[in-house]
Design a protein that fits this description.
Length: 154
């Protein structure tokens, strides 16, 4: 794994992404910010515990976003619960979070391995994820499934 990820944080100017530090209460606060109905605290605690990577996004000392990765860490990674507080959107924070998560995957995979990275997005959010190479995977039951292949570099 890339050295900078062993330090459990990645910095860029006034933004920081920290790994595996998010509390259930903070998750619920962020999850509700776009108007989503949050699961209960016990369920969130289990989800955080069973995620292999949880990313917390800060602007200075303020928690402003999050994202989780689940999957088998070899053939598939699933992006879940990607949220940036509405007042911090369209300012580069979400881009920094996604770049950090995608780079983390690249450095998590052995060189030459390829993994499918998948997520679900609204049509509006799909345009954002397309900037990172995600392509729509049409389906009948979900708004917009998307995926991109990432190759390992470790």
């Amino acid at each position: 794994m890339n050295q900078k990820y062993n330090q459990n944080s990645v910095d860029r100017k006034d933004l920081t992404v920290k790994l595996n530090t998010l509390s259930a209460a903070d998750f619920i606060h962020l999850f509700r910010s776009p108007g989503w109905e949050a699961p209960g605290a016990k369920q969130v605690e289990a989800a955080l515990k069973n995620s292999h990577s949880v990313f917390s996004l800060y602007s200075g000392p303020k928690l402003i976003g999050m994202g989780r990765l689940i999957g088998d860490r070899s053939m598939v990674y699933m992006f879940r619960d990607i949220v940036v507080l509405p007042e911090y959107q369209n300012q580069g924070a979400g881009t920094f979070l996604m770049e950090t998560m995608l780079e983390w995957i690249s450095h998590d995979l052995p060189a030459g391995w390829r993994s499918s990275c998948e997520l679900f997005a609204t049509e509006k959010a799909a345009r954002f994820y397309q900037k990172f190479g995600f392509k729509s995977v049409p389906n009948q039951s979900l708004e917009c499934g998307m995926m991109v292949m990432i190759e390992g570099s470790a």
